[in-house]
């Protein structure tokens, strides 16, 4: 291993070094400062006589006398089942004072793409206990479903609620006792505040979830460049647990916005031609290399389900971070500021939310035969009610037809009864769908044109309309 | 990727620098677009720039750990595909490596690097039946025999397009692998079932003809309002989650093409898996065989190397052209062309080329038109006629259609299916905006619809368009004053338009019956709405209040036609019922 003291330039998070021997692209580098401190970095560009290095812990304090060692390998994550229950920093160094980690394997953190031919299509319903998700935007095992939120909104509460409540109903019925041990949570924090981090850690400890969790913490005051490796460490661990050790892994990554800011910072330091709003042109590819590390593989027991959280700058979902994310993930859950201020918990706006894997994960034998139709009808009715809200502000309720008034009532009750359930209630899919029928029965039968007639006969509550009529009279 | 014939190895070069997918090499003797093998692991790459002694290469595999000083080996041939029996029912990456073979060779579900495989199985034997005899003169492109490639498709074995032709001196029926000679010409040329063709070069044809036949999609809004021709081009732009992929999948499933080439370009792995799992189970509506029998998949997902994403659309269209040469109608879907454009941008920026609009290279528009130009209805060099229809999804950042990829695409394609986030949000699917979309093929396809569906197809469609237009205008007023403030006839029009939207334009891709709608059914649903319209206005003229007209309980049944298997009967009954219920009101 050759050591160089030939730094020629230091710029932002980058260090340029003259070399006389070839260095591998992406290889790991150690930089030793004059005071003995060592920092780590990665080769971003390798030419025959110089390399550009991105330093994870930042370049502050590095001078041209620092010595640079190339380790001759790309970044690795030591993986083992013993990682469960451990807390590490954003570069994978334990910070919980626990025993040294004896790895089973050291895995490249960039990860190889799953061969599309080897994937298995995800279609196993995960019951999160949250009606707005289970009923309207169902999550399945192996899906990547981000939470689109914004600053000041309770996205963490929702993520925690899901992590706490998530079950796969079928397995419960089979009375599989080991089921609990097969479930693992990987938590990758990027640039979140210590307060937020505590919120997660307290909840993990309170519920005993920590034992089956692996935590990677890069906090707001930790180096920004480090954020580009934290999710890769988390996902490498997840893939190992899922595809070697048969765990069903739920990966929570927060906050992807901070991750993207770090990418932007590196791009700017390299004087790259920026893409939209200053973010690198390759951000789509970069994000895809994270988000696509979810799924199922044919012949393997485990699965990687991703729940990335991002805060939309300016609540704007056309901003490159949510936009590119939405183009890669299999749907998204929107946290809504208005619903939040109305006190709806969790404040999920179901209309722009979407689960693309829902269609194959629901229905007879999976959830319930009426699920798809009920969902379609609720969407249609709620959208109708939402539209009418604008109009009613102008013309007043009296100017609207009887049916239109019912749609307005439907929209209100949908938010107050269906969406609003609090952070501690877990509803079964049956409860969710029955609640759906309670609400739909406010509408006349022939307005339910998205639902199969037989299903209407089976589930429609005749008395609800009667009640509604009485109430009006 | 073409690997079947041994190419002479040229002189080696040495890696000079590595930056992501872009590698430069010194002293490499190679031509533009030649395939090279990079580094000690032999990663596949393509020459994209030559400047003096320095050759720039885009590498189709991950370059982590590759260092300057490692060797680069030229192959002396451009990036080509292997053509021959065995491409249907196959799934390839962006440079035509079969993903099932890679899985086996790598022994892993993850894509390792440095592993190559020919695009078609070189060992497998096929039953060859001659179509010409000894003594016959054949020219480039001529069909010399057939092979039952799948239950749906007879593969035509053709004289390569660059052949001199000649007289057949030997031809034999029997089982051969693709490298064995099946025909010998007097010139000494030997013809095998296997051909190669460089992907960036269009395969020759005699001429492009004006398309007159629709590519029936089984989707009402497309066939009914915005049809695409066989040999036509279409773009589907839309924000994330608006239905581009579902529409492309629907076309791949139900379009009445002979062959479907589906290119998953920089999109999700699971979407390809879905096709791999579904298509073998689904029935081709025309032949009754498994859909997979007519399908070739190319999957270069978003996390696979970006350079191979750049080339995957070319791999796809070259395969499509090859089947066109056999006289087939081929439909190619590319999801998404934006990811292809972004791959160009990424490579271009690593080359430090002068960026054009939004960082895209200045040649973006030229590349897009070159690609779409390869679509068309052609007279082939062997005298057959065949077509390549191209349907490209576009993923505009922020859903804003004014960005370069959408705009440059719209300048070329003739069909525009505009997806609308608002419609998607209210789960109006397919969320194709009927006010913004257009098809420039409409008039030239009308005769086909008149002859093959109904003589008054164009008029009935015009009625539907007018009704929907009027609705759009009226909605603006309703937003201000409410529906009840409108005159009765306008209220009625709104109601009719609502049925057109719900019963006709909306179509559930996930419903077993509704997923596919033959043109006759498309016509009849539209016509049923018109029947209601005509009878309703008669009633209104006779003095019946609009609420009573819209309240008849037969009307909502219009929305259930889509899911009916016996729709003909259902519509007959329903039309009678609507008319008689309205008659009773006056
Ligand atoms: N014709 C349809 N019928 C029923 N549902 C549909 C239809 N079209 C779209 N959808 C719904 O919309 C969702 C999103 O569609 P799709 O995945 O095609 O979007 P997209 O435009 O390809 O998005 P992206 O750009 O992110 O890939 C689907 O998962 C499905 O739930
Ligand atoms: Mg898509």
UniProtKB/TrEMBL annotation, chain A:
Provide the Gene Ontology terms for cellular component.
plasma membrane; proton-transporting two-sector ATPase complex, catalytic domain
GO function term, MF aspect, one: ATP binding
Tell me the lineage of the source organism: Archaea, Methanobacteriati, Methanobacteriota, Stenosarchaea group, Halobacteria
Q: Which GO terms describe its biological process?
A: proton motive force-driven plasma membrane ATP synthesis
Residues annotated as domain ATPase F1/V1/A1 complex alpha/beta subunit nucleotide-binding:
129-355
Domain called ATPase F1/V1/A1 complex alpha/beta subunit N-terminal: residue spans: 7-72
> What family does the entry list?
Belongs to the ATPase alpha/beta chains family.
Q: What is this protein called?
A: A-type ATP synthase subunit B
Note the InterPro entries from the entry.
Answer: ATP-synt_VA_C, ATPase_a/bsu_AS, ATPase_A1-cplx_bsu, ATPase_F1/V1/A1_a/bsu_N, ATPase_F1/V1/A1_a/bsu_nucl-bd, P-loop_NTPase, V-ATPase_su_B/beta
According to the UniProt entry, the coiled-coil residues are none
UniProtKB/TrEMBL annotation, chain B:
- Which cellular components does GO assign to this protein? plasma membrane; proton-transporting two-sector ATPase complex, catalytic domain
Name the InterPro entries for this protein: ATP-synt_VA_C (IPR055190), ATP-synth_a_Xtn (IPR031686), ATP_synth_asu-like_sf (IPR023366), ATP_synth_asu_arc (IPR005726), ATPase_a/bsu_AS (IPR020003), ATPase_F1/V1/A1_a/bsu_N (IPR004100), ATPase_F1/V1/A1_a/bsu_N_sf (IPR036121), ATPase_F1/V1/A1_a/bsu_nucl-bd (IPR000194)
Task: Give the catalysed reaction(s), semicolon-separated.
Answer: ATP + H2O + 4 H(+)(in) = ADP + phosphate + 5 H(+)(out)
Keyword Signal in annotation: no
Q: Where is the Rhodanese domain?
A: 320-349
The principal location of this protein is membrane
Is rRNA-binding among this UniProt entry's keywords?
no
Q: Which residues cross the membrane?
A: none
Q: What class of enzyme is it?
A: translocase
For the ligand (ATP), the binding residues are: 238-245
GO terms under biological process: proton motive force-driven plasma membrane ATP synthesis
Q: Tell me, what's a Pfam family for it?
A: ATP-synt_VA_C
Which named protein is this? Answer: A-type ATP synthase subunit A
State the species of origin. Haloarcula japonica (strain ATCC 49778 / DSM 6131 / JCM 7785 / NBRC 101032 / NCIMB 13157 / TR-1)
């Amino acid at each position: 291993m050759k050591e160089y003291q030939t730094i020629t330039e230091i710029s932002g998070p980058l260090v340029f070094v003259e070399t006389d021997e070839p260095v591998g692209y992406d290889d790991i580098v150690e930089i030793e400062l004059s005071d003995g401190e060592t920092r780590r970095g990665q080769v971003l560009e390798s030419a025959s006589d110089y390399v550009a290095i991105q330093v994870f812990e930042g370049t502050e304090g590095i001078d041209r006398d620092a010595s640079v060692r190339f380790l001759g390998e790309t970044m690795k994550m030591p993986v083992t089942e013993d990682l469960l229950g451990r807390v590490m920093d954003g570069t994978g160094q334990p910070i919980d004072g626990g025993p040294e980690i004896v790895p089973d394997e050291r895995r490249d953190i960039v990860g190889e793409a799953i061969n599309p031919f080897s994937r298995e299509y995800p279609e196993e319903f995960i019951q999160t206990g949250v009606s707005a998700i289970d009923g309207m935007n169902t999550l399945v095992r192996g899906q990547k479903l981000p939470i689109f939120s914004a600053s000041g909104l309770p996205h963490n509460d929702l993520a925690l609620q899901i992590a706490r409540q998530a079950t796969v109903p079928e397995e419960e019925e089979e009375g599989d006792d080991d089921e609990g041990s097969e479930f693992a949570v990987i938590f990758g924090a990027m640039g979140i505040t210590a307060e937020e981090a505590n919120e997660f850690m307290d909840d993990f400890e309170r519920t005993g979830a920590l034992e089956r969790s692996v935590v990677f913490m890069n906090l707001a005051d930790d180096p920004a460049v480090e954020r580009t490796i934290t999710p890769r460490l988390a996902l490498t661990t997840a893939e190992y647990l899922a595809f070697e050790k048969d765990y069903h892994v739920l990966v929570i990554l927060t906050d992807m916005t901070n991750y993207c800011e770090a990418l932007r910072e590196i791009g700017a330091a390299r004087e790259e031609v920026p893409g939209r709003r200053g973010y690198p042109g390759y951000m789509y590819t970069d994000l895809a290399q994270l988000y696509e590390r979810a799924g199922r593989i044919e012949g393997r027991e485990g699965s990687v389900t991703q729940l990335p959280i991002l805060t939309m700058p300016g609540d704007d979902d056309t901003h490159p971070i949510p936009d590119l994310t939405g183009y890669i993930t299999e749907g998204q859950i929107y946290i809504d500021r208005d619903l939040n201020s109305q006190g709806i918990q969790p404040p999920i706006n179901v209309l722009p939310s979407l689960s693309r894997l829902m269609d194959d994960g629901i229905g007879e034998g999976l959830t319930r035969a009426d699920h798809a139709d009920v969902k379609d009808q609720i969407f249609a009715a709620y959208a109708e009610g939402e539209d009418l809200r604008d109009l009613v502000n102008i013309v007043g309720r009296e100017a609207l037809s009887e049916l239109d008034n019912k749609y307005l009532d439907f929209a209100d009750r949908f938010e107050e009864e269906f969406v609003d359930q609090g952070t501690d209630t877990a509803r079964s899919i049956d409860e969710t769908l029955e609640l759906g029928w309670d609400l739909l029965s406010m509408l006349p039968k022939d307005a339910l044109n998205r639902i199969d007639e037989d299903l209407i006969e089976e589930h429609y509550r005749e008395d609800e309309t009667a009640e509604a009529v009485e109430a009006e009279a | 990727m073409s690997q079947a014939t041994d190419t002479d190895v040229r002189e080696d070069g040495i890696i000079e620098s590595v930056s992501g997918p872009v590698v430069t090499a010194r002293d490499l003797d190679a031509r533009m677009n030649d395939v090279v093998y990079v580094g000690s692991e032999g990663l596949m790459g393509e020459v994209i720039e030559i400047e003096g002694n320095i050759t720039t290469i885009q590498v189709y595999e991950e370059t982590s750990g590759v260092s300057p000083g490692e060797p680069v080996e030229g192959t002396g041939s451009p990036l080509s595909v292997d053509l021959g029996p065995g491409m249907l029912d196959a799934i390839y990456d962006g440079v035509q490596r079969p993903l099932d073979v890679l899985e086996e060779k790598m022994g892993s579900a993850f894509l390792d690097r440095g592993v190559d495989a020919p695009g078609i199985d070189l060992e497998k034997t096929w039953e060859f039946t001659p179509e010409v005899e000894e003594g016959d003169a054949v020219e480039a492109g001529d069909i010399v025999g057939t092979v039952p490639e799948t239950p749906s498709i007879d593969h035509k074995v053709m004289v390569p397009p660059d052949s001199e032709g000649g007289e057949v001196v030997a031809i034999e029926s029997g089982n051969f692998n693709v490298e064995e000679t099946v025909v010998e010409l007097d010139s000494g040329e030997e013809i095998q079932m296997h051909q190669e063709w460089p992907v960036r070069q269009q395969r020759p044809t005699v001429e492009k003809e004006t398309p007159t036949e629709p590519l029936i999609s089984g989707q009402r809004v497309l066939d009914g309002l915005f049809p695409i021709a066989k040999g036509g081009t279409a773009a589907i732009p839309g924000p994330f989650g608006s239905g581009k992929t579902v529409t492309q999948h629907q076309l791949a499933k139900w379009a009445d093409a002979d062959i479907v080439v589906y290119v998953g370009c920089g999109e999700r792995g699971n979407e390809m898996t879905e096709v791999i799992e579904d298509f073998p189970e689904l029935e081709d509506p025309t032949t009754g065989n498994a859909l997979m029998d007519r399908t070739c998949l190319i999957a270069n997902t978003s996390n696979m190397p970006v350079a191979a994403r750049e080339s995957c659309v070319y791999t796809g269209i070259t395969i499509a052209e090859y089947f066109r040469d056999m006289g087939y109608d081929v439909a190619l879907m590319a999801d998404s062309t934006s990811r292809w454009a972004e791959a160009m941008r990424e490579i271009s920026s690593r080359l430090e080329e002068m960026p054009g609009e939004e960082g895209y290279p200045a040649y973006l528009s030229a590349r897009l038109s070159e690609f779409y130009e390869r679509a068309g209805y052609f007279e082939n060099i062997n005298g057959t006629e065949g077509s390549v229809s191209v349907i490209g999804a576009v993923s505009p950042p922020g859903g804003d259609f004014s960005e370069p990829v959408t705009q440059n695409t719209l300048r070329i394609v003739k069909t525009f299916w505009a997806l609308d986030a608002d419609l998607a949000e209210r789960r109006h699917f397919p969320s194709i905006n009927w006010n913004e979309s257009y098809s420039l093929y409409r008039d030239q396809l009308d005769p086909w619809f008149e002859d093959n569906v109904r003589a008054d197809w164009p008029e009935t469609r015009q009625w539907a368009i007018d009704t929907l237009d009027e609705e759009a205008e009226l909605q603006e007023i309703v937003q201000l004053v409410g529906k009840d403030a409108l005159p009765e006839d306008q209220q009625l029009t709104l109601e009719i338009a609502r049925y057109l939207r719900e019963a006709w334009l909306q179509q559930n891709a996930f419903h077993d019956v509704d997923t596919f709608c033959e043109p006759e059914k498309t016509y009849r649903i539209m016509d049923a709405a018109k029947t209601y319209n005509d009878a309703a206005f008669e009633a209104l003229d006779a003095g019946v209040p609009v609420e009573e007209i819209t309240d008849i309980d037969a009307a909502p049944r219009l929305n259930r036609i889509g899911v009916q298997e016996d729709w003909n009967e259902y519509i007959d009954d329903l039309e009678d019922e609507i008319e008689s219920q309205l008659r009773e009101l006056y």
